[in-house]
Amino acid sequence: MPVLLELVKQVHASQKDLEQKLTRHMTDETDELAAAIARLMADAFPESDPSGHRLHHELVIKQAEEKAKFWAEMRMAAAKWAGLGLLGFLATAIWTQLLKGPHI
């Protein structure tokens, strides 16, 4: 029985050693991942500022929307004035023909 007891003690010691190594590995891996994510964040955004980067994109999107709205309004205004100009031209042409009288 003493041999069996010694064998159980060795297995228990090996198990404790393995548990400590696993715990240390998990801690180191977590720290390494955190450091890698921090490096990626620093490299991915200008001046390591993801909020500023997001705000920049929101501003660019807002400017694009305002530009599209401006040009839509410009097209509508141009169509309106072109239509009024055409109506004015037609009215003037009809009026001048009416003033000349009928063609015989």
Structure description:
The chain has 104 residues and is an all-alpha fold. The chain has helices at 2-44, 50-100. The chain is rod-shaped and about 140 Å long. The mean pLDDT is 91.
Percent of residues in beta strands: under 5%
* Average pLDDT over all residues: 91
| Low-confidence blocks of residues | none
SS summary, helix count: 2
Total number of beta strands: 0
Estimate percent helicity: over 70%
Order of helices and strands: HH
Separation of termini?
139 Å
Short account of what is shown:
Helix content is 90%, strand content 0%.
SSE topology:
Layout: H1 2-44, H2 50-100
Supply the key terms.
104 residues; mainly alpha; 2 helices; rod-shaped
